[in-house]
């Protein structure tokens, strides 16, 4: 079968345990110390990586839960390095010490992802529901610098802590992060229960415009100290293009060596994937459903045979505003938010309120126009 290069996995997050030592309000898997470990063995893990290697050599991020709680984490990482994968690890930082850093170096960890959701202990620890969590991140960052281990910062934001976004960026830069990812929390796991705290469309628009100004300043200054990107906000790619055009600028964006390889908004199921601790394959870490298990169907088949994964690559079949949007090929919309709002992952992304040109001029598309407006059909154009 002919394989499109753009639809090969370049980045895979692998949940090797669901157990976690924190109790964060936004956790996609609602993890606790009592959560399941996942019943796959080290041999199962090796077989999975063998199967992945048959079609690609992506970045593999060992995640959780807290991956450092799994006893064979270093064996899995070492085997992945041996297979030629770029092995990375995502941790909350609390369990990091000198011995952990030495193991990371030994097994060839190329990048570590640290979570920082507030610029102070008060804000971060409230978000993570664990006193001392902030101190753990700061300690881990110092240890990574001591052992020459590159790290990036992932920061998750809701109404609870969005006011602190500029300060969190400054803190990530101050502690030496290679990159800073501003994540707009999705309604998955505990975050679904805290739905009232999630940023709405107007709030997201405000902070994405703020992020554009930040990224523009870094580009114009030639400042390569830290790479910045919003996460789970694919319509930022539209906003970036629109704002740059408004400003009369041709801005060349940087890419992280161990990024998702997409060069566009959402690449879930196209060049990235998530495998949970039971082997269920999903388009991304936050996608709530799966239709195939990589311990039953080898990854090199599952990647192509899963209907959900196939659908992620059919942007011409997207519905609603996403289906007619002139920016869809650089954005793709968030399929998780579409599923949460419409119970249909092919529908429009509710956090983006942009009205496509085809809608503005009244072109019919799949029966969407000229229908009687219904509750939730607000398409007010809030694009600057």
Automatic annotation (TrEMBL):
Assigned keywords, A-Z: 4Fe-4S, Iron, Iron-sulfur, Metal-binding, S-adenosyl-L-methionine
Family matches, as SUPFAM superfamilies: Radical SAM enzymes
Pfam families: Radical_SAM
Keyword Iron: yes
Cofactor(s) in the UniProt record: [4Fe-4S] cluster
Gene3D superfamilies in alphabetical order: Aldolase class I
InterPro entries according to UniProt: Aldolase_TIM (IPR013785), Elp3/MiaA/NifB-like_rSAM (IPR006638), PqqE-like (IPR017200), Radical_SAM_PqqE_MftC-like (IPR050377), rSAM (IPR007197), rSAM_sf (IPR058240)
Residue ranges of domain Radical SAM core in the record: 6-217
Name of the protein in its database record: Radical SAM domain protein
Organism per entry: Desulfurobacterium thermolithotrophum (strain DSM 11699 / BSA)
């Amino acid at each position: 079968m002919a394989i499109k290069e753009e639809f090969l996995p370049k980045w895979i997050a692998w949940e090797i345990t669901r157990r976690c030592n924190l109790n964060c309000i936004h956790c996609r898997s609602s993890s606790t110390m009592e959560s399941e470990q996942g019943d796959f063995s080290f041999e199962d893990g090796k077989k999975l990586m063998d199967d992945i290697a048959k079609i690609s050599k992506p970045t593999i991020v060992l995640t959780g839960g807290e991956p450092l709680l799994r006893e064979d984490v270093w064996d899995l990482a070492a085997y992945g390095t041996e297979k030629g994968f770029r092995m990375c690890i995502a941790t909350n930082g609390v369990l990091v010490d000198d011995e952990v850093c030495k193991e990371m170096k030994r097994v060839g960890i190329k990048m570590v992802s640290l979570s920082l959701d507030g610029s102070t202990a008060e804000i971060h620890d409230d978000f993570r529901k664990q006193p001392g969590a902030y101190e753990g991140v700061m300690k881990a960052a110092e240890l990574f610098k001591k052992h020459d281990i590159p790290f990036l910062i992932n920061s998750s934001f809701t109404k609870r802590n969005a006011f602190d976004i500029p300060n969190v960026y400054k803190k990530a830069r101050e502690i030496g992060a290679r990159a800073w990812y501003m994540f707009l929390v999705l309604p998955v796991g505990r975050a679904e229960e805290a739905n009232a705290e999630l940023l709405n469309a107007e709030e997201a628009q405000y902070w994405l415009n703020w992020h554009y100004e930040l990224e523009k300043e870094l580009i114009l200054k030639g400042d390569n100290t830290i790479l910045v990107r919003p996460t789970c906000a694919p319509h930022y790619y539209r906003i970036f293009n629109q704002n740059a055009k408004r400003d009369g600028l041709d801005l060349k964006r940087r890419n992280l060596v161990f990024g998702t390889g997409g060069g566009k908004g959402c690449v879930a199921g196209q060049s990235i994937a998530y495998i949970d601790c039971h082997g269920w394959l999903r388009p991304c870490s936050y996608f709530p459903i799966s239709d195939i298990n990589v311990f039953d169907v080898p990854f090199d088949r599952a990647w192509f045979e899963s209907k959900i994964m196939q659908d992620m690559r059919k942007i011409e079949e997207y519905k609603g505003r996403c289906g007619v949007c002139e920016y869809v090929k650089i954005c793709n919309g968030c399929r998780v938010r579409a599923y949460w709002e419409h119970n249909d992952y092919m529908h429009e992304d509710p956090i983006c309120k942009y009205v496509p040109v085809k809608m503005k001029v009244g072109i019919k598309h799949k029966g969407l126009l000229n229908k009687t407006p219904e509750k939730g059909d607000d398409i007010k154009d809030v694009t600057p």
